[in-house]
Write a structure and sequence with these properties.
This protein is mainly α and 313 residues long. The chain is built from 14 helices and two strands. Helix 5 runs antiparallel to helix 6. It is globular.
Length: 313
């Protein structure tokens, strides 16, 4: 009875959280055509566990803040992206990229990489400080990629479902490094400690007009009043994990109690959403064991016609 009464609340929360990410085609709609293909990470990877958790919402916000602290990276976004005109579209496409490269079969991974690299080729120009930029250049590709990797990892370490060992943290970095190599990004640190240090001490970071606009946008995104209540909790939780130097550059302050409130908020989201249904789908594609009790949402694509698909084990 209690569960029946709470189901409408769970559905409303799920729709409110996932709705902003629904402005792009689902990237793994045909993934069951690649039965047995583990992709670049696979069922036993740290990546599926980490990015499949709701703490990834905090990681995504954190990554965007960090990426914007690089003047040339944010200039490329400001000069060539439609994020201010179509913010939810860009958010959805970024989410689709992470979904495809982490959970997809290899043909889906490769397609996502080709799409992004093709989109980045014309992204060239000069930043506000007179430095030329090229979004496909290895150092800029590395900043974007490493910020994502570090942010998903740090968010899980602070707000994830289970404690993460140092070995699993390093394994996650190595798995994500393989994705970065497909972009020809460089440098790509090999351990969690090296990655965190590379982000925190990276030279050449400073405030810029594009960074100010991005930070203002992330503080006040175009969400409904109800969505903004939850988003502000996640935003503050993301800021609380940033190195002090980056908080100063970005112009954000760590709020007292933000981590505790963030943990509570993520706990509520985990109750409502469970783990990623894409993780669930990818386990089925690989005929791998499906953990009990962590998947709540329906599968994102129909698998009824998949030959030989049995019940989750």
């Amino acid at each position: 009875m209690v569960r029946t009464l709470l189901d409408p609340i769970r559905r409303r929360m799920t729709n409110a959280v996932t709705g902003p990410f629904g402005h792009a085609d689902y990237p793994l709609a045909r993934t069951m055509e690649f039965r047995g293909d583990p992709g670049i990470c696979g069922p036993d990877s740290a990546s599926w566990k980490i990015i499949g958790d709701v703490a990834g919402f905090i990681g995504g916000i954190r990554a965007l803040l960090i990426q914007a602290s690089h003047p040339e990276v944010v200039a490329g976004v400001a000069d060539h992206s439609r994020y201010e005109v179509d913010p939810l579209g860009r958010l959805s496409r970024t989410s689709a990229y992470v979904t495809a490269t982490t959970f997809g079969a290899m043909p889906e991974v490769e397609q996502a990489i080709r799409f992004v690299r093709k989109a980045h080729r014309p992204v060239q120009g000069v930043s506000h400080r007179g430095v030329e930029y090229d979004a496909d250049a290895p150092p800029l590709a590395a900043w974007v990629h490493n910020a994502l990797t570090d942010s998903f990892l740090v968010a899980y370490q602070h707000y994830g479902r289970d404690p993460l060992s140092e070995e699993d943290a390093d394994r996650f970095v190595e798995e994500q490094r393989r994705i970065g190599e497909l972009h020809e990004a460089s440098p790509l640190p090999r351990t969690a400690e090296a990655l965190g240090s590379w982000i925190a001490t990276h030279p050449g970071l400073e405030g810029s007009p594009g960074q100010v606009r991005t930070a203002d946008f992330l503080k006040r995104p175009p969400l409904s009043r109800g969505q903004l209540v939850g988003y502000r909790i996640l935003f503050a939780a993301a800021v609380a994990t940033l190195p002090r130097r980056l908080r100063r550059i970005i112009g954000v302050r760590r709020m007292p109690g933000a981590r505790l409130v963030g943990k509570a908020g993520i706990g509520i989201l985990r109750w409502a959403l469970g783990s990623s249904p894409t993780w669930h789908l990818s386990l089925l594609r690989c005929d791998a064991d499906v953990p009990e009790g962590i998947f709540i949402q329906p599968l994102p694509t129909d698998v009824s016609g998949s030959v030989g698909l049995g019940e989750p084990r």
